[in-house]
Design goal:
alpha/beta; five-stranded mixed sheet; four-stranded antiparallel sheet; 20 helices; 15 strands; binds pyridoxal-5'-phosphate
């Protein structure tokens, strides 16, 4: 039947008519969604007709618009990127990458029921932390340990359990802000305890703590100054001294370690960092640390130390609001198991493998990549530069680790060209994230392991 040419509304195809041609789309996006989008497309057409504009009415055009609408809002969740920033444990880039064994452990339980809180021996209700607690005890030397959502939660929970309505002295040199969302004084306040600042920014002495302790003091707290360092005329009170003082006054010493390190970094040729077992050995009653910083595991916070204190922390009703899920615990258990095999650990744990990669290997990688990049990046000068990277996430901020970078400088020297170059690398299927520094884009190669994949997407874009 001929459509009425004089009435433009009548020339519009019907939703059903269009829907019949959209088998592939309904298969992919679902019939309801496709029909809703078709309605919206036709609605747009009617509005255009009503406004008196010339309107293209073909089914093909409607279909193109349909595809645009279906695709919009289809941005995936987090996608992998190449972290060439030089910061190995980068909070904005998701911190630690998990070892393959942990990824497999997550995949095994993610889509199915598992014995998270079920004791397979007795057939009764179990404890979700049973999967990791004995490993944590073994690796930290603690009597007991518990796991929460992240280290900020660990600090909050410990203080809310042991010090609500009471005082906690902390050195003024340790009242740190980490990232833009964790400020020690604010977390302390929210936990319900009262922060008592002692000492000065650069110097705190044992007598400062002694003078601050009274009947209202709940515990002593020492905070790792993670992301900054006080240098020069400084004094801090050691954990050993604080532990002695706390014991004399019969109150616990809690140490927030920030990055939870479980191995001797100095022995690996890395800047020294106190391990959880060191600090517990010096007399701390509880330590808290992150799972996804130097530990190299999933996001979580670990509380380890005296059994009676850990038991109190576990009984706090807030614990339930901060507990980790099955995927986190599955990943953490695998990562901790790796720590029992030091040789496998260095090979398989991405964080430690990347941090200990020799500079000679990075230089050889740079030599291989430079000509290949030069062939695909026009109007860009590429040089190989020695540079310094960071561990990241607040760990050891001053002790940079030597690395090698490709320095990409637009031939024009224009800032606009530099930003366009950085944007085009970010626009690749697996975005490449470098660092802009001194009029160039620096690609630090310490974290580049997938050399073939990196080159493939540069050399054949669109494939
Ligand atoms: C990183 C850090 C935190 C916060 O840990 P998250 O795991 O990011 O919650 C707390 N305290 C210190 C000292 C830190 O370095």
């Amino acid at each position: 039947m001929l459509k009425d040419a004089s009435n433009p509304y009548r020339q519009l195809p019907s939703v059903d008519e269009l829907l019949r041609r959209c088998d592939a789309e309904t298969e992919r996006w679902g019939r309801t969604r496709v029909r809703d989008c078709l309605r919206a497309v036709l609605e747009d057409r009617r509005r255009e007709i009503a406004s008196g504009r010339e309107v293209e009415l073909s089914a093909e055009i409607c279909r193109e618009e349909l595809l645009a609408r279906l695709g919009a809002g289809e941005r995936p969740g987090p996608v992998p990127v190449y972290n060439l920033t030089g910061t190995v444990v980068h909070t904005n880039l998701g911190r630690a990458g998990l070892p393959a064994s942990a990824v497999e452990a997550v995949a095994r339980v993610a889509g199915t029921a598992c014995n998270l809180e079920f004791d397979l021996d007795t057939g009764e209700r179990g404890d979700r932390e049973s999967h990791v607690e004995s490993l944590l005890r073994e690796l930290t030397g603690a009597e007991a340990a518990t796991v929460v959502n992240n280290n900020a939660a660990a600090v909050l929970l410990v203080l809310n359990t042991l010090a609500p309505g009471r005082e906690v002295p902390v050195s003024r040199g340790e009242l740190v802000e980490i990232g833009d969302s964790f400020r020690m004084p604010e977390v302390m306040q929210r936990s319900g305890c009262t922060l008592v600042e002692v000492g000065s920014t650069n110097r705190t002495h044992p007598r400062d703590y002694e003078n601050a302790i009274n009947d209202d003091t709940a515990l002593l707290m020492k905070v790792h100054t993670s992301n900054y360092r006080v240098a020069g005329f400084t004094a801090a009170v050691s954990e050993t001294q604080l532990a002695r003082l706390a014991a004399e006054r019969d109150i616990p010493l809690v140490c927030d370690l920030g990055s939870g390190c479980l191995v001797d970094f100095a022995a690996l040729g890395l800047p020294a960092e106190p391990t959880a077992s060191d600090v517990l050995g010096r007399g701390a009653d509880l330590v808290t640390f992150s799972g996804d910083k130097l530990l190299g595991g999933p996001q979580c916070g670990i509380i380890a130390g005296r059994a009676d204190l850990v038991a109190r922390v576990r009984r706090n009703p807030l614990k339930r609001t901060l507990r980790p899920d099955k995927m986190t615990l599955a990943a953490l258990a695998e990562v901790l198991r790796l720590y029992r095999h030091p040789e496998r650990l260095l090979r398989e744990l991405p964080t430690l493998r990347l941090l200990t990669r020799p500079v000679s290997e990075l230089r050889a990688l740079a030599e291989r990549l430079r000509p290949r990049l030069a062939a695909v990046l026009t109007d860009v000068e590429i040089s190989i530069e020695a540079c310094r990277g960071q561990i990241g996430s607040g760990a050891l901020p001053v002790e940079n680790i030597p690395s090698v970078a490709l320095r990409l400088a637009p031939a024009s020297g224009e800032d606009r060209a530099l930003r366009a170059l950085a944007r085009s690398l970010r626009g690749l299927p697996t975005p490449v994230i470098g660092r802009i520094h001194k009029a160039a884009l620096w690609l630090d190669l310490r974290c580049l392991e997938d050399e073939a994949g990196f080159l493939a997407q540069l050399e054949s874009p669109g494939s």
